[in-house]
Structure to design on (312 residues):
C-alpha cells in the first residue's frame, strides 16, 4: 500500500502514540489524514462509528485509541479497561469491514502475553496461559481483537495487521502519578524529589521485574511499515529485544534527572508481570524493522522534554 495515495483514518491521533504516528505519516507525504476527536465521535457507540466512516471514507484505518494506564489505573478500573478497549475495537473492525475499508492496522500490547511466559516472548506463546492479573482485562481485550481480525481474514478476506508493542515511552507521555506508565511516573517522582531535596524516594514493588521499553518514534515507524507491507493479522512483536529491571531503570532515570537520593523499594506494592522481553525476529523478517533509539538516549530526550514542559 502506497500510503501518500490513501485516505488514512487514525483513531487516538491526539494521544501519545497517535501524535507521533501522525507526524511520521505527514513526513512520509501523507496529506489526507483524518483525526477524529472523542468529543465528536465516541467509538464505543455504534452510531458514532458508522457516522465517522461515512464522513471519512478511509482506505486505511490505524486504530490507536485505547484506555491505557499503569498498574494503579488498571487495578482501579478493570471493567472500564476491558469494556472500552474491546468494544471500540470490535465495533470499528466490523464497521470497517462493512464499509469496504482496504486495510486495518491495530496496535496491540505485550500485556496480552501469559504472566509466566518464558523470555524472550515469541508470538506462538500468546495462548500459553493467562495474562498477569493486574492488566489482564486490558491485555485480553486487545487479544480478542486479534482473534476478530484473524476470523475476518478467514471469512471475509479482510486485510489487517496486528502489532504487539512493548512498553512505550518518550516525549509527550502523561506524567500523572496515578495513571501514567512507569517511565514518566519515575521521571516526575525523581524531579520532584530533587526539587524538594528529599534524602530518599520510594518506588512501587521490589525492583526486580524486567520490562522492555520501546521509544515512541520507533513504534510509529513500525506502524507505518505494517500499513505499507502487512496484509494478515498474525501477531508481530515490536520492541528492542532487550529487558531492563525496574531497579536499573530507576537508577538510570535518577542519574539523568540529577537526583542523588536513596531509592527505596516497597515490596508491599504489586510488581506486575515478572519479566517482559520480546523475540523480535518476526518484525525483522516481515517489517524489516529494528528499534533505532537506545534506552538511555530515549530517556535523555524524555527527561529533557519533561524538564521543558514542567519548568524543572
Amino acid at each position: 500500500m502506497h500510503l501518500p495515495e490513501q485516505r488514512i483514518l487514525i483513531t487516538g491521533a491526539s494521544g501519545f502514540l497517535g501524535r507521533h504516528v501522525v507526524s511520521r505519516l505527514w513526513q512520509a507525504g501523507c496529506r489526507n489524514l483524518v483525526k477524529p476527536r472523542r468529543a465528536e465521535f465516541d467509538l464505543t457507540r455504534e452510531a458514532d462509528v458508522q457516522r465517522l466512516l461515512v464522513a471519512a471514507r478511509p482506505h486505511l484505518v490505524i486504530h490507536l485509541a485505547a484506555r491505557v494506564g499503569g498498574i494503579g489505573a488498571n487495578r482501579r478500573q478493570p471493567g472500564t479497561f476491558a469494556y472500552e478497549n474491546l468494544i471500540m475495537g470490535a465495533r470499528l473492525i466490523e464497521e470497517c469491514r462493512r464499509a469496504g475499508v482496504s486495510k486495518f492496522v491495530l496496535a496491540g500490547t505485550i500485556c496480552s502475553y501469559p504472566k509466566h511466559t518464558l523470555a524472550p516472548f515469541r508470538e506462538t506463546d500468546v495462548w500459553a496461559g493467562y495474562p498477569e492479573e493486574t492488566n489482564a482485562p486490558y491485555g485480553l481485550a486487545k487479544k480478542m481483537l486479534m482473534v476478530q481480525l484473524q476470523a475476518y481474514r478467514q471469512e471475509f478476506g479482510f486485510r489487517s495487521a496486528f502489532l504487539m508493542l512493548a512498553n512505550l515511552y518518550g516525549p509527550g507521555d502523561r506524567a500523572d502519578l496515578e495513571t501514567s506508565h512507569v517511565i514518566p511516573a519515575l521521571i516526575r517522582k525523581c524531579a520532584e524529589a530533587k526539587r524538594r531535596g528529599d534524602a530518599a524516594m520510594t518506588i512501587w514493588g521490589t525492583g526486580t521485574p524486567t520490562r522492555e521499553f520501546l521509544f515512541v518514534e520507533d513504534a510509529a515507524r513500525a506502524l507505518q511499515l505494517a500499513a505499507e507491507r502487512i496484509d494478515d493479522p498474525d501477531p508481530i512483536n515490536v520492541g528492542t529485544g532487550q529487558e531492563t529491571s525496574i531497579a536499573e531503570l530507576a537508577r538510570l532515570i535518577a542519574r539523568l534527572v540529577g537526583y542523588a537520593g536513596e531509592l527505596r523499594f516497597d515490596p508491599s506494592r504489586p510488581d506486575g508481570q515478572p519479566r517482559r522481553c520480546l523475540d523480535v525476529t518476526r518484525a525483522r523478517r516481515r517489517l524489516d524493522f529494528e528499534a533505532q533509539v537506545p534506552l538511555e538516549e530515549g530517556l535523555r530526550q524524555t527527561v529533557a522534554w519533561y524538564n521543558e514542559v514542567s519548568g524543572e
Summary: The first helix runs from residue 16 to 27. The mean pLDDT is 95.
